[in-house]
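Attaching the record inline, Q. Sequence:
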Amino acid sequence: SVSAIRYQDGLLFTGSGDSCARAFDTKSGVLRKVFRGHTFVINCLQIHNHALYTVSHDGTLRVWDVRGLFEQDRGSKRPRKESRTSSLPRVCNNRVGSLRQEERVRAERQEERERRERETLELV
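Structure, as predicted:
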């Protein structure tokens, strides 16, 4: 099932429950690319400067280079080779962040609030 959707420049990007993001050509409906790497549902995606950002319930943010997809629309239908001098392809194949620490801190704060509420109730 589709859990996130974003449109840009003739491409429709989806995030799904199968932990994959996909890019579709909106004119032809053709699946242009599947982005694999998350281990759980993708719940948010964004496109900025020809990078696709996906966030998943697995606690990770991933960045994918989508320049080649947009360039195919402007000219040749041949896939573009990645530049060896660009740093973006190296970043795109790795985890670039984790929300797990933030989630842990939030849970600890919530537990502390609940503990204080119990103490307050006992005092009254």
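Residues 98 and 109 are 19 Å apart (CA to CA). Residues 76-99 have pLDDT under 50 and may be disordered.

More tomorrow.
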